[in-house]
Amino acid sequence: MAQSIVGRDDFREAIKQTLAKRVGMRCSNPQCRKTTWGPSSEPDKALNIGVAAHICAAAPAGPRYDDEMTSEQRISIENGIWLCQNCAHLIDHDLYAFTRDSLVEWKLWSEAAARNEIRGQRFLRARKSVLQGVFNSGPTPASIAGPIPTDWNGVGLASLRLGLYETQKESPNWAFANERLLEALKAYDSSDLRDWVGIGKCMYMLGFVEQSKPDYASQSADSWYEASISAFMDADPVDWASAGVSWQQRGFLAESQPIPDWLAAEEMYTEALCAYQQADPVDWTAIGTCYKQLGFVAANGSAPNWIVVADWLQRALDACLAAEGPDMTIVSRCYHQCCCAAYALGKVAKAIEWIEQAIAAEQQAQNPDVSTLNAWRADLSMLKSHLGPLDRTRHIRIMLG
Fold first, then answer.
1. Topology classification of domain 283-401
2. CB neighbourhood size of 397 (10 A)
3. pTM: predicted TM-score of the whole model, two decimal places
4. Domain limits of the chain?
5. What are the Cα distances from residue 243, in Å, to 77, 101, 160, 206, 294?
6. CA 140 to CA 186: how far, in whole Å?
């Protein structure tokens, strides 16, 4: 770790160089865009007026300091932005105008601009009124005046990243994320060469944002997920993996209604499974989670066929274990549900074997859940007490939770 001053997290030289190169050696302020590297008066030297600035301060009491960030996060490239010296001074002395979000927006747009330049694209210099005319209605991509890329797919990607960045915060501003994603969708829609995968991702994230709101409308979220599937299917080649994720999300919505629609959930998970099986490369963990959800749906019917349930769960376990570097959290849940199915079939010894494997798998997980382990140990004690048939149905429901 590079630290020029005690208590201050400074960037490594390699990160400074990369920040500069990713924006074409220009200032990342969209209203500046000044070239920061040029010739010195000495013929064998170059002159630099650029600065690798911290988005969140390198030391306590600095501008936009975030005490929840680790030292490694502060010196990472994600926390850096390349600026000219004037703009670097400006952002640190007007904190209300230059927030963390606005600097991330500058960075993403400047990288998109550099990407266009290196591909030989031209720039359109337009003010907001002109830009709004291009989009006809709705929000404009990144409310700034100045040079913007004419590659609308690039614009869409930048706005999509801003929306994604917002959703990953501890306390997201869902309205802001929704606005950025709608901007991205409009930008993608303005391109002559449609990026159907990009469009699908925007639609999927709009569904996710809708679903994440405290008072979300499930129909609205489901409509976005359904639209995203159509976009992924229109891509060439078809993005089967992303379509599978959208189908699976529709299944989650169906089963999480106040009155779960188990038939719809089963249909959605089956479609997701078919999509994942056609993806290249095959994602065995995703396939396993579909099998697992199909087992869960089958177990929650009015008169579940536990032989069918057990078959789904065995398939889920096999698929998850086939993955390279299995996710032991998911594997442990598969073992536990296999235990429930075995117990329902009256195979107590097998159920004990499954739940012991569930506990062992959870202990190997990256972040073992203590409360889950305690609950499963209680289940194990219950199983070892050899409860009779009259108790079994009630305890299956308790174990399935």
1. 1.25.40
2. 11
3. 0.62
4. 1-99, 283-401
5. 31, 30, 18, 15, 18
6. 9
- Which tokens hold the place of 329? 């959290």
Tokens of residue 331, six digits: 């594997």
Q: Which residues contact 199 (CB under 8 A, 6 or more apart)?
A: 156, 185, 188, 189, 231
Q: What are the pLDDT tens digits along the chain (401 aa)?
A: 444 445 678 899 999 999 999 999 999 988 788 999 999 888 888 999 999 999 999 888 888 888 888 888 889 999 999 999 999 999 988 877 788 888 887 888 788 777 767 765 443 332 233 233 333 434 444 443 344 444 778 888 888 888 888 888 888 888 888 888 998 888 888 888 889 999 999 999 999 999 988 777 678 889 999 999 999 999 999 999 999 999 999 999 999 888 899 999 999 999 999 999 999 999 999 999 999 999 989 888 777 888 898 999 999 999 999 999 899 999 999 999 898 888 888 888 898 999 999 999 999 999 999 999 998 998 888 888 865 443 444 455 444 54
**CA dist., res. 134 & res. 141, Å (int):** 11
Structure-block tokens of residue 294: 């199909």
